[in-house]
Every structure is written in structure tokens, then in C-alpha cells.
Specification:
The strands form 2 sheets. The protein has a 6-stranded antiparallel beta sheet with strand order 5-4-3-8-7-6, with helices on both faces. 46% of the residues lie in helices and 19% in strands. The longest helix is centred in the last third of the chain and has 24 residues. The protein is α+β, with helices and mostly antiparallel strands and 273 residues long. It has 2 domains: 72 residues, Winged helix-like DNA-binding domain superfamily/Winged helix DNA-binding domain (Arc Repressor Mutant, subunit A); 171 residues, 2-Layer Sandwich (Beta-Lactamase), CATH 3.30.450.40. The chain is globular. β3 and β4 form a beta hairpin. The protein is built from 9 helices and 8 strands.
């Protein structure tokens, strides 16, 4: 009697699993709105942005409030991030390897340039400021840590975009490129040409592309996997960024990014047992 070989097939997903996955995705989408939008959001705004019914949104918000991930303000008809979300964010930042590697280098770069230095991380198809060291001068540029920005506008975003895998880069370029200022590059062909140059040089420059009257110079942070996961920048009022200063700062930023990349390669997340 011959034995029939048993072919392993994946178990079909149950309806309960599908519903649970969909619910988790909706909760995540609600939270991500708070990460990239206004401080307060109401049920109607969330419902409109995510295409969910107000009843569903209200149930999600009520659950998040009960766990202090969100909280309400009696004087404002809306919700904002709560203390539990703040605690999670603080823990995530403290354990984020790219930030650990970048902080001492960013501090030194700020001292060398006397301009604000920043660290950005890639989040989906956008970037978010993770840290900054402010310029010691009275007139200076500062950024809003935790706020999301598109990749096509400004040197920090372009430095990341130029070093993304081709399919991910094209996904960003295929969408309408929203102008943030009159100098934002919104023509995809022109932006592709600039990204190719950034990929060759390793440094991106922006003069008023994300914020009027502001200039910045950025370089990508390449992880141990060989992909861009963030960028660092030097930024300040555009009138101080003369061609001579830009040329000098480009070299400083490129050297700083290479140092962070080398340090990052040595960092390893502890093995989970």
C-alpha cells in the first residue's frame, strides 16, 4: 500500500480574522491622522478623511480614549493624542537606532555650522522630523518635531526620495506634486532629473521649496539594508546661504551622514528570546 504525500496548504482565513484585521487597520488609520494632521480632530473630519461612518469612528475614538491613547478637551469639540500615545512615542524614539546614531553627530554639526540641524525619518511615503538642534543665533529656523511632510518638497525629503528603490520612488512621482511654496518643484520630469543628480552627488539642496525664505542642505541616511530610511539637514534663513556657504556646508553634511551611517551599521536590536 503506497502512502500519499501530504501537501501542506495554508489554512483559509476565517471571517473573524478578516474582520479583526480590518478593525485593526481602521484604528491605525485613525491614529495616523493625528500624527500628520491638526492637533484636534472631530468625528466628522475623521469620517470624511477615511471614508468611514461616524458610528464606526465614534466607537474607535471611544476605545482609544478609554486607554488614554486619545483624550478630549471640554472646551474643544474634538480629540487629541493622550498621555499613553506620548509615552509610546517617547519609548519608540529612545529605541530608534537611527536617532541614537545621529544625535551626537547632529549636535556637532550644529556647532560647526551655527545653523539648525535636523533628523528626518521615512514613514510610508512621507517623512517626519524626529529631532533637531536649534541654531544659537537670534534669527533662526526651527522645525516641528513629529510633523509629516511630502518627500518631493525640500532637501530632507529629496535626499530620501533620490535613494528609494525605483518602484517606491515612482509611486511618489506618479502622484500630483503639491506646491508648498512658489519654488516647489511640481513637474515630475524636472524632479526626476534633480533626483538623479542628488543620487550622484549624495547631497540635496533646497532654496525656499518647502518654506519660503528658508534654505536647507541634506544627505540621506542609508541603513544596514542598503536603503534610505531618513536624512539629516542643515537649515536656516535663505539670505545666509550664499553659494560659498552652500559649497562648504555640503561637504560637512555629507561627512556627517557618512559618519552616522557607519555608526548605525554597528547598532543591532537585541535578540528577542
Amino acid at each position: 500500500m503506497t502512502e500519499k504525500s501530504a501537501i501542506s496548504r495554508p489554512e483559509p482565513r476565517s471571517r473573524t480574522e478578516d474582520v479583526g484585521t480590518e478593525t485593526a487597520a481602521r484604528v491605525a488609520d485613525v491614529l495616523l491622522l493625528f500624527a500628520g494632521g491638526p492637533q484636534y480632530l472631530g468625528v466628522s473630519a475623521i469620517s470624511r478623511k477615511l471614508g468611514l461612518s461616524k458610528a464606526v469612528v465614534h466607537r474607535i475614538l471611544r476605545s482609544l480614549v478609554s486607554r488614554e491613547i486619545l483624550q478630549t478637551d471640554p472646551d474643544i469639540a474634538g480629540y487629541r493624542l493622550g498621555p499613553a500615545a506620548v509615552a509610546l512615542g517617547a519609548i519608540a524614539l529612545s529605541r530608534f537606532e537611527i536617532r541614537t546614531a545621529a544625535m551626537p553627530v547632529l549636535r556637532r554639526l550644529r556647532d560647526e555650522t551655527t545653523e539648525t540641524t535636523t533628523l528626518s525619518g521615512l514613514v510610508g511615503e512621507e517623512r517626519v522630523y524626529l529631532a533637531q538642534f536649534e541654531c544659537p543665533r537670534e534669527v533662526k529656523m526651527t522645525v516641528e518635531v513629529g510633523r509629516r511632510f511630502p518627500l518631493h518638497a525640500g532637501s530632507s525629503g529629496k535626499a530620501i526620495l533620490a535613494f528609494l528603490p525605483g518602484d517606491r520612488r515612482e509611486t511618489v512621482l506618479a502622484r500630483p506634486l503639491e506646491p508648498l511654496t512658489e519654488r516647489t518643484i511640481t513637474d515630475s520630469a524636472a524632479l526626476r532629473a534633480e533626483l538623479a543628480e542628488i543620487a550622484r552627488e549624495g547631497v540635496a539642496v533646497s532654496m525656499g521649496e518647502r518654506q519660503s525664505d528658508a534654505a536647507s542642505i541634506a544627505a540621506p541616511l542609508i541603513g544596514p539594508d542598503g536603503e534610505a530610511h531618513g536624512s539629516i539637514s542643515v537649515c536656516g534663513p535663505s539670505h545666509r546661504f550664499t553659494p560659498e556657504l552652500v559649497a562648504h556646508t555640503r561637504e560637512l553634511v555629507l561627512t556627517a551622514a557618512e559618519e552616522i551611517n557607519r555608526s548605525w551599521a554597528w547598532l543591532r536590536t537585541p535578540e528577542i528570546r
